[in-house]
Amino acid sequence: MDAGVSTLQAIVPDAAAGWRLDRALAAALPTLSRERLKVLISAGKVVAGDGGAVRDPAVKVAGGAAFSVSIPAPAPAHNVAQDIPLVIAYEDEHLIVIDKPAGLVVHPAAGNLDGTLVNALLHHCQGSLSGIGGVARPGIVHRIDKDTSGLIVAAKTDRTHEGLAAQFAKHSIDRRYRAIVAGVPNPSAGRVEASLARSSANRQKMAIVEPGRGKHAITHFALVTPLRKAAMVECRLETGRTHQVRVHMASIGHPLLGDPVYGRTRPEHREMLDRLDFKRQALHAAHLGFVHPITTAAMAFESNIPADMQALFTELAL
């Protein structure tokens, strides 16, 4: 056997008799996604009990049939592992939930090639990443803006990544943000439905566009605490689009305090923000709920607002 190659044994359950090989193996091997298994099958890495490689993912299988699946060691990630401190809300062999501080970029990109959450996870999870698409990297299925704090989940395995991505695609993930906005919403609760797309005037910004021209987006908001010419609100995402809360709240006349892109800082807030040295949008991912893709347990996590937003809240308290 090649160095670094692991082999898993699988028995097709009787309930899976007549299924495609890739589907049956996915049921028998919960750490591997169906897409990953298709690649392994096509590469000749799946061997039937008689010793012959099976290269057709669509071949029908019998209940009780035995297969060996050879899994090459995951290729090294392109990004470098960096020892960056993390606040971990939950972790198991399948996934990890991080309470991200404001200022930490999630994914390397132009202008932020390292020092990101991905670099930190590569260091923290080294040795426990089974590989996403054959590469030893964390599976990032959603993002939080650099200057937004709060909860984010990442997958360690293909199967977990696939399961989380499916929940995000179905909008079944429970994501709730706490935001401090200008003014007090009236009515105190509501729903903003407005499609979002890159602004034609500034590609760094998102803008509300006509339905059909951008991505459908819905935000539900509710007043939590009225403040002095401001308010703490909870925003529940029905969809998860780039800058969604920031754009939607600004569109109804309640931009997030401190938002350098979509906010229009009122004179009564400017001196206070400067005094507190508050230089980011007042937005925190406070609640994250989902179904664990492997155990099927309902998972829910809460994160208290960080010290800088608490200081801002205290200053504005009635």
Features of the shown structure:
7 helices; about 325 residues; alpha+beta; 10-stranded mixed sheet; 3-stranded antiparallel sheet
Structural description of this entry:
The chain has 318 residues and is of the alpha+beta class. It is built from seven helices and 15 strands. The strands form three sheets. Strands 4, 5, 6, 7, 8, 9, 12, 13, 14 and 15 form a ten-stranded mixed beta sheet that branches. Strands 1-3-2 form a three-stranded antiparallel beta sheet. A two-stranded antiparallel sheet has the order 10-11. The chain is elongated. The mean pLDDT is 90.
Structure in a nutshell:
This protein is an alpha+beta fold and 318 residues long.
Question: Which SSEs are present, and which pair or pack?
Answer:
Elements: E1 6-11, H1 21-28, H2 34-42, E2 46-48, E3 66-71, E4 88-91, E5 95-100, H3 117-124, E6 139-140, E7 149-155, H4 158-169, E8 174-182, E9 189-193, E10 195-198, E11 206-209, E12 218-227, E13 230-237, H5 244-251, H6 267-276, E14 283-291, E15 298-302, H7 307-316
Helix pairs in contact: 1-2
Cα distance spanning the termini: 70 Å
Helix content: 10-25%
Helical segment tally? 7
Structural class determined from secondary elements: alpha+beta
**What does the largest sheet look like?**
10 strands, mixed
The coarse overall form would be: elongated
